[in-house]
Write the structure tokens for this entry.
Amino acid sequence: MMGFLVRRLAAMFMIAAMAGVAHATPPIETYGRLPGFERAALSPSGDRIAIIGVTGDQRRLVIIDRDKKVLTSAAVGNHKLRSISWAGEDKVLIQTSATVALGYGFTTSKTELTNMVVVSLTGKSPWAVFSGNRNITGGIRGFFGAIEREGRWYGYFGGITLENNDGMSNRLGSTREELYEVDLETGKAKRIARRPDSDTIRRDWTIAADGSVAASMDFTTADGSWTIRNRDRQPIASGKAPTGGIDLAGLGRTNETILYYSRENSGVGQLFEVPLAGGQPVEVIPDDSSNRTLFDEHRRLLIGYTRDGDMPEDHFFDERLEKRMAAARKAFPGKIVRLIDANAAFDRVIVRTDGPGDPQSWWVIDMNTRRAEQLGLSYAMFGEDVGPMRMFRYKAADGLEIGGVLTLPPGRDAKQLPVVILPHGGPQSRDYPVFDWWAQAYASRGYAVFQPNFRGSTGMGDAFRVAGFGEWGRKMQTDISDGLAALAKEGIVDPKRACIVGASYGGYASLAGVTLQQGLYRCAVSVAGVSDVYRMSYTDVRESGGDATLTRALKAEIGSGRDLKLVSPARFAERADAPILLIHGVDDIVVPFEQSQTMASALGRAGKQYELIKLVGEDHWLSRSETRLNMLSAAVAFVEKHNPPNPPAAH
């Protein structure tokens, strides 16, 4: 075991622990605010760390050196932050997004536009990629990395090129992006790859270490055919993915290979490596337990993967890196240790730990000296304030084994507890036994919280994920209530004191729990949930311009036609047997606000008890501090009203 010397860095985003001190129940604001420590990135040398944290309701960028000296501290505002990375030692790239309204002629009224802001440590004012360029519109359409060449740094971005109209003005000719190289010092953009001739073809690229296009992939939406070509435009791989399960993943384990990810084989995901010169594709990770690939962003090569499970682990092909990561895991027993970033030499890394009693800790580790320093905490809560969490396993009605995360209220026995069932979104996602701000908020109020990983969830293998196809409102729904029954059978919860709460697909499951099912829950909270699956499917296809690939994918995963109407809670509003709270961001482009409006109208016509809360300026991901807190405050108050954490006194 590595003898890590754990030493806390007194950063502005961390509040000191008060171990062993009893606390009053924390105010709901403690859970509802954005995490105090959100993101971190290492410069190539490892000498500088860029940190994004939150003070009050505002995000802030702080850059420190090895001696903890603050080099830059600047307000980022309330922008929706998506990523942070370095280009050399003196430029930080911050990716943000914003919801914007579209004008006449588009298939949708709103979209999410992404921008990349370049922050320089040399005194130059921050600037946005493509800003001031009259020939490119719509922000950036994909980031393909940053590369140093001859002492200068260049970034690679997709952009929508405007077409010249009679030499007088520019117009939008196509929404397909083209590939640009941008000088990160001057901002000058140079087009290095064009879009395909047809709007029915999507094109993707992978950039080589010298900044050239190593490979491109064309995907035809009409029939799902795809072809990968090398820099000489010679085909090196091809196939058919009717539902769109194909992605160009990047360079392989060497500069002479390329990776692509395919789900052509009955939805089973496979990562293939093929020589750029041509040859037989080889499966890189032969099992289906990986949920992400790990790249060396400096050499742009695949170096490892994350093995999924209840305790995901990062693994590396290089024996030296594998031993170092294993030692890091050993230094944090019982925790999930996730690699966040590394310097070019991979001797200085940033990791994040999650697990029981750990409200997401961020560490910088010096692999040579075997020392770790804590950079900060996502949520500054300690000791008795954190509800203990563990995996709870049970069998569904048809015998399928399912695992979920059980979080218990601090300081209470796990006997006959009131319970909040909290299904995750996606639905192709999963919950882990880690600190969850939403679950902890309910646990702090005296509730057991159960997050079931129903069929269709990821992280349990492709067969488990595919088992959810066509099961919206059916077995995916009964998997959730089977978990409630199993908890009740063991005496952990009182089944008569249960509410169901969720967001996105979890919001759909909440609505289905009191309409398609009855007699299970005392209340339901749906945040940005789908209420009419048939209408949602129709909207997605319409806004895609009738994309054939999306149409096939939706049919395969959730069904079509009358089948969708039969699992749409809004069409069964008269069956609702518990009060319902609907919360939805007006700027949601994933699940439109109209989905909650439709449910509210149906409940109103049926004379059912409901509330509808509009989150103005909020999107699908609860990206803003004020509206996220408003959501949580309303949701917790609603559950406390209809399912009090303490039973009423006997008379």
